[in-house]
Amino acid sequence: MTEQSPALDNLLTESRTFPPSEAFSAQANATADFYAEADADREAFWAKQAERLHWETKWSQVLDWTNAPVAKWFVGGKLNVAYNCVDRHVDSGHGDQVAIHWVGEPGDSRDITYAQLKDDVSRAANALESLGLEAGDRVAIQMPMVPEAIVAMLACARIGVLHSVVFGGFSPTALRSRVDDQAARIVITTDGQYRRGKAAPMKVNVDEALEGAESVEKVIVVRRTGEEVPITEGRDIWWHELVDGQSAEHTPQAFDSEHPLFILYTSGTTGKPKGILHTSGGYLTQAAYTHHNVFDHKAGEDVYWCTADIGWITGHTYIVYGPLANRTTQVVYEGTPNTPHEGRHWEIVQQHKVSIYYTAPTLIRTFMKWGNEIPQKYDLSSLRVLGSVGEPINPEAWIWYRENIGANSAPIVDTWWQTETGGIMISPLPGVTATKPGSAQKALPGISAKVVDDQGVEVGKGGGGYLVLDKPWPGMLRGIWGDEQRFRETYWSRFADQGFYFAGDGAKYDADGDVWLLGRVDDVMNVSGHRISTTEVESALVSHPTVAEAAVVGATDPTTGQGIVAFVILRGNAVDGGDEAVQELRNHVAKEIGPIAKPRQILVVQELPKTRSGKIMRRLLRDVAENRQVGDVTTLADSSVMDLISSGLKSGK
Ligand code: 6R9
């Protein structure tokens, strides 16, 4: 496996444990015997979890794995995902319960009950149908965190249309490639979005993206910031004009358990993002099961807040599908954590008495940087479960989270999973597990994960290797949109003999057999919990006329986990590699991919270190980027290259 960074080595020396309090355990949803129950009969265990949902027709078979690696879960079952997330809570007498406490960045807010959500989703579903959309069609959504984004997703699900949410920070080029890949018929967006206290445009970016996009028939625009936007006659429609006048009655049709629910694009090791495909019954089962047990959620009592954006899988599974299936009352916040001040999250926790809070290590480290005195100003006593997701959490941040946010008592659940897994896979269970700072610990009941060596043989306690998932699970991806070959190659070819799913993460067992995640082993970087491939950034750089060649590495970063560091060779001698040129390149990457992909640092070099077969040795560049002694250079075609790079950097060239 690839070498570990010093920060990750550090994780493995951590030995503190925090057993659950008796009081917490006594009321916990999860119990220790879940593990044995699931081990005894996995399919019976999952069948029991599927009973959390309303099925119009019950399944005849729990799992069909005969066509592996494409699974079928709850075969023959029929359900409507939106009905499960909305209507049935109204039908069971909870229509007045708040589903969403929405908090806008500028200070506006809306409380939406389940009854209102049902009306909103029904109207939107009628609206989409009035445009001729049919089950199986695709709708792309690029929106900020406004309630209509959630309504749009649920409306698609209700009529069997696949949504594909594209993160609001993605560039027009990135949106376009996703729209084209799935041949989306409709795009839903907003006029603008609030970011850091200012209104920023959104619709104009969508217009730029869609120039000449043949599949797109209509663009629906939600009014958010009120800024003026150009309207393309015949194509663009205002959401309020289309949706508000629709009937609030809409009969949900039941779809097959394996009916596709959504596509979500994520970075792989090549430049082209992968459209990860998820289906209905299995996905929703795992979403509901994990949300209930991992967060110890109690419907009608807890106030839950997941700080993710709906543009990422965490927003899909732990803002939309899992929580709503479980009749959660949740906070949805539109904006940035330091607008208008650095206590914004804690102010919201205090105001809404948030009891379950789920966020990412990068944000926890940012809170640490802002200072302990900020959360101390607020009443956080309502918090009883804290979650972390997106990247390995370093023990220091874990302890800070526990002490400063969790009053030294709230259990922390460090949840490992991926866009591809659909839901949480490895995590402590609050009330059951004695937690360890920095370790995700154990595969959940019903889930099976192993750490294996190069040959696919499980390593022993204390050993490290690759994380694999050795048994199918309900929320697993069913493919990559339009590219079955890539699906098989990416996930199933590495350990084809054993039939393991290759996650792309390095991991290690400690002496107790608990799992510690060590970061990606492929060319995927993790910046603030966002997956960005080195190739994607390299292609963006070489698309600039001044760049001849580029190599990109993820370097350990104290706040964002990894930071993007690029090494570029400029074309010809005429171009100088001064600050302005570098700034221009950084902006170019932001324009091509989105601001999250903007390199932290760009170093202009004369040569790149390559092996004889022409592979760039990123390991050596990472040494430079992390200010380490450069490692073994013997496999380089020209071993003097590293001296050239290092001396060039020192002399500021
Ligand atoms: C949910 C999500 C997946 C990649 C994954 C891994 C990293 C996520 C983690 C974690 C260590 C955790 N990752 N959670 N690493 N501990 N608790 O983040 O999905 O955006 O697809 O990223 O994120 O490297 O492979 P996604």
From TrEMBL:
Every AMP-dependent synthetase/ligase domain range: 92-481
Lineage: superkingdom: Bacteria
UniProt binding sites for Mg(2+): 542, 544, 547
GO MF, one example: AMP binding
Coiled coil: none
PANTHER family: ACETYL-COENZYME A SYNTHETASE, ACETYL-COENZYME A SYNTHETASE 1
The protein's name in its UniProt record: Acetyl-coenzyme A synthetase
